[in-house]
Amino acid sequence: xxxxxxxxxxxxxxxxxxxxxxxxxxxxxxxxxxxxxxxxxxxxxxxxxxxxxxxxxxxxxxxxxxxxxxxxxxxxxxxxxxxxxxxxxxxxxxxxxxxxxxxxxxxxxxxxxxxxxxxxxxxxxxxxxxxxxxxxxxxxxxxxxxxxxxxxxxxxxxxxxxxxxxxxxxxxxxxxxxxxxxxxxxxxxxxxxxxxxxxxxxxxxxxxxxxxxxxxxxxxxxxxxxxxxxxxxxxxxxxxxxxxxxxxxxxxxxxxxxxxxxxxxxxxxxxxxxxxxxxxxxxxxxxxxxxxxxxxxxxx
Length: 300
Prior knowledge:
The protein is an alpha/beta fold. The protein has helices at residues 43-51, 122-132, 165-175, 189-201, 206-219, 224-242, 244-247, 258-269, 280-291; strands at 5-10, 15-21, 24-31, 60-65, 80-81, 93-94, 102-106, 110-112, 117-119, 138-142, 147-153, 156-163, 252-256, 276-279. α4 runs parallel beside α6 (224-242).
């Protein structure tokens, strides 16, 4: 099976590739060869190991997004300044290669000068969301390790803000004193809702409320499921309080992993906001397809 072209989502910890044809995705594969584990000279061999079954005679175009284009990645794709369209096919960055069977281009990330902020990979998901929802105006939220809130108008990213919510949840739950009360993988929806309410109503109490999880585990029988869920709620609630200008009174579209965007949708619903949802995978593929010229120009 030969791919017409190959879509690549290359992050810090994982490499994901999709063999594309006129009908869409023909095959997909992934590996643990993320940007963080590779030296510059190792990127091309890592990619070929994954996609070689899809190569045939001639040159196969490869379009990649994510941390592969960072300064520490394979080949730097300099940030584009907002306001701008999330992705412009003519501004892709070509990668010098040894293997003549490939022609690799990387999507540049976006930057914002004041307040300072950057994104890589999310710009492709935003472009894909706009291709799937032509004419969308409002806010696109991309929950994840580093959650992004982007204001969209007339097909452009006008401004955006990043929150370290996902990374803080992972660090606090596995490396802080809170880890002692969060063993297992269970969940408590009522505790999550309570955490969201606390985080939104009194974000200035976030640090105190975080330690209270530890104290309640010691003297008030707070179980690990409730502690983990409340930690998530506190952090997401504080994020929503800070991002109020992005979601209040506007259309909100959530793009991400199903479980995570469900939590954000639940939290937003407490504020009478009904968010629309799209899967990150679908948006990434649609964004790279737009870059490849397969989809019509986003937000026309």
